[in-house]
Amino acid sequence: MSKVIILINRLSDQPTVDELDVIDQAEAVEKSLDELGLLHEREFVDSDLTTLIDKLASEPDGLAFNLVESINNNAGLVYFIPALLESLNYPFTGNPSDAMFMTTQKPLAKKVMQQLNIPTPAWFAAGDAIQLDPSTQYIVKPSREDASIGIDEENVFWGAQPEILDKFRNRWGEHFFIEEYITGREFNISVMAGPDGAEVLAPAEMLFLNFPADKPAIMGYAAKWDENTFAYHNTQRTFDLPESDTPLLEEIRQICRQCWKAFNLRGFARVDFRVDKNNRPFVLEINANPCISPDSGFYNAAIRSGYTFNQVIKRILADL
Fold it and tell me: What are residue 177's DSSP bridge partners?
């Protein structure tokens, strides 16, 4: 290859902290490419795809490192970029367009998981609120967002309170779904392409410390991004898991490999789980091309697994 073209989404005029995270990712990748002796250039991407097409045409022997997380701040359009690259037969890192489409359209991903017997919490479309069980707790999620955007403790409610959904309709129209809220532990499992298929990296559990009994223990937007909140300072990642978790973690690894195959994942991904009080794991969502900034779960899982970030980048570059 003559050059690595690092593709990232063009930021809005007043970017939020979650939006700015893509810059941290680009800088980490650029540092690694420098150390690997590879030429690179950063290219910002928006809805004007002709600019991107012209850039790629100017580097016919190049390779695109795809870090695009949204187009014009719309995460639901993220599959456009791999689809374009595929149409141009331009090599690129990360997940193909079908994987990106299925995993970013969350209700579609839930349907695929149900059809393939991948355990996932029961769910309902926006228009099916009449079917909710009054004695069951649920969580409302936007259909096409990532990075916990639009999710906080107000999204958790009991089925006897369907009127709560009205404010989410005002916000998202019908582009949301309702998922059974699993009370229990949460795991983020990073997966990387390996010589023999998917390699499941060191499993991480998210600990919710000092949470009152009536406060939902969720990785919402505040817990991930807002440094001024209780949730941010009392949510902690740990890789130090007890020996008693061995059977559970092996089951989780097997489910991750099943997801990798079922969703045609490539390069790198993350699978998020909740584990109920009976030690049953449920897939919450599959993140194709997850965040790889130095403070991310994927980055730290790779380091905990004994890899340097340069080795991770070489592995991602090799899985085209």
Answer: 125, 141
